[in-house]
Amino acid sequence: MTTKMNKTTFVITKMDCPSEENLIRMKLDGIQEIKNLDFDIPNRKLTVFHCGQSDQIEKSILELNLGGQKLTTEETDQTEFKENTSQKKLLWTVLAINFAFFVIEMATGLISKSMGLVADSLDMLADSFVYGISLFAVGGTLIRKKRIAKLAGYFQITLAVIGFIEVLRRFFGAEKLPDFTTMIIVSILALIANGICLYLLQKSKSKEEAHMKASMIFTSNDVIINLGVITAGLLVNWLNSSKPDLIIGTIVFVLVVQGAFRILKVSK
After folding, report:
1. Secondary-structure breakdown of the chain: helix, strand, coil percentages, each rounded to the nearest 5
2. Is residue 81 part of a domain?
């Protein structure tokens, strides 16, 4: 007796960049009933092709707290799925871009005394962790993947806590104004880098998405953060105060901690 293939569609409201796609892939890894995952990041949808019920799949997606909700489950005749052989190469490219900008933003953030840039560098590092876990655990056991995820999550939280302490020190101390020019220039470069990463990963999905709409790029949380640091730089210059930089730094550190908890959920 042949088991019927089912197709379950989820809407995932907080899935707005490819690193979240990889988190979901890692979380669902090991569920044998799953035959294929089809991600539609612009519309924040995931279609899971699977045998049997979708209960375990739905439970795993909900555990990530990414605003996942099941829309439909229906039978499908589709049994063959195209493998993306260039996916590994793409992940390496995106990992390299994210890690390079982690180094650039951390260095320029410390030199220019901008907590916004330092915090954004940690956000870049968080994305690097997600891509890195996907790559380094390929072919490895699920236990190994979860162990790496746990280490990455705790390391991220540690760095964010150090960042919070530094923000408080600067808030109550007499610190020099951050260099707003460096903040703006580096954030614009990071904005371009995030756009390129999103473009490359979406272009790999299908030919129809090769010419990506500009509005789609701005669905990414990372891009919103970059725009936030640019705005903070302008406000630092306009108000002659370091407070806007400290505020955006705090917001991004909170987002980094949230991302760390998602990685820890993958490790359970």
Report:
1. 65, 10, 25
2. no
**Distance between the two ends of the chain, CA-based, in angstroms?**
35
Summarize pLDDT for 81-100 with one digit per residue, the tens. 665 556 677 888 888 999 99
The two structure tokens encoding residue 190: 């990071």
Which secondary-structure segment (H or E) carries 6? strand 5-12
pLDDT tens readout for residues 225-237: 899 999 999 999 9
Residues 92 and 168 in one domain: yes
- CA distances 79 to 20, 31, 47, Å, are 26, 17, 14
Which of helix, strand or coil describes residue 9?
strand
Decide: 94 and 131 in contact? Cβ < 8 Å: yes
The reported pTM is 0.77
Whether residues 105 and 230 fall in one domain: yes
